[in-house]
Specification:
The chain is of the alpha+beta class. 38% of the residues lie in helices and 15% in strands. It has a single domain (3-292), classed as Jelly Rolls (Sandwich), CATH 2.60.120. It holds the Pfam family 2OG-FeII_Oxy.
Length: 293
């Protein structure tokens, strides 16, 4: 067996051993490891490219939604038009923007973060019943969706729940966070519909419900990412470079930061967490729809 085949065989063996534990990256940390395993180690050039030059002071646009969906219909035409213009400009130039004053209570945002963390930090045996890569299930938990296909694994564990259009029951979700996940999903669905209205108007469409009528806001998948403490954070990534395959992604950041976006296809820009803010990302499917209008 040549050296390339040997390396591939060793890597597959590592991946299988890791998968069989059903405890993810959190399990590695709990075992007391002092070094990042080879399967997670990114090449130095990849890691270096993620560090923005100090001279760059870019920030993604922040859009005030003036209370969100509850007040949107009653806003004066000037305020509404200003919102539409800002969201259109941000979508065209960045593909990303932050929204504040969006109408989702701060305590809901904090509770869902606490709930996701509680799920990942609970006893491993309680999580194992959800460990699966079968996405026909309402709720799954795993480490790295692309574990067996990516060049390197990322330092994260993920819970994934399909919240709409066919919502899960309480029995489908973890006891530790199921209730707040349901509440958060309802809030996000409302916010998503508002953003699709604004985007429809920004695109110059005659009907503000155009994107909603195309079922762009029909489904919702909730991902709860968890990044355990890393013994060698300069050797791996929590999440590798990617685009989202959705119409729209709404990101609720944790308090530690680490989220970056690629601007002008060359600059990685940090997005520091802002209390109460949500980051909106135009996904691949929405960009395809825009091209066809």
């Amino acid at each position: 067996m040549d050296s390339t085949a040997t390396v591939a065989s060793d890597r597959l063996s590592q991946l299988n051993s890791f998968e069989e534990t059903m405890t993810g990256v959190k399990g590695l940390v709990d075992s007391g490891i002092k070094e990042v395993p080879a399967m997670f180690r990114e090449p130095p050039a990849i890691l270096a490219s993620r560090k923005p030059p100090l001279a760059l002071q870019f920030t993604i646009p922040t859009i005030d939604l003036n209370g969100g969906v509850v007040y949107y219909k009653n806003q004066d035409s000037v305020t509404r038009r200003s919102m539409v213009e800002k969201i259109g400009d941000a979508a065209e130039k960045w593909g990303f923007f932050q929204v504040v004053n969006h109408g989702i209570p701060l305590d809901v945002l904090e509770k869902v973060k606490e709930g996701i963390r509680a799920f990942h930090e609970q006893d491993a045996e309680l999580k194992k019943r959800f460990y699966s890569r079968d996405h026909t299930r309402k709720m799954v938990y795993y480490s790295n969706l692309d574990l067996f296909t990516a060049m390197k694994a990322s330092w994260r564990d993920t819970m994934c729940a399909y919240m709409a259009p066919d919502p899960p029951t309480s029995e489908d979700l973890p006891e530790v966070c199921g209730e707040i996940m349901m509440e958060y999903a309802k809030e996000i669905m409302n916010l998503g519909e508002l953003i699709f209205e604004l985007l429809s108007e920004a695109l110059g469409l005659n009907n503000s419900n155009h994107l909603k009528d195309m079922d762009c806001s029909k489904s919702l998948v909730l991902f709860g990412q968890y990044y355990p403490p890393c013994p060698q954070p300069d050797h791996t990534l929590g999440l590798s470079k990617h685009t989202d395959f959705s119409f729209l992604t709404i990101v609720l950041q944790g308090n530690l930061g680490g989220l970056q976006v690629l601007h002008d296809k060359q600059y990685w820009i940090d997005i520091p967490p802002v209390p109460g803010a949500l980051v909106v990302n135009l996904g691949d499917l929405l960009q395809v729809k825009e091209v066809t209008f």
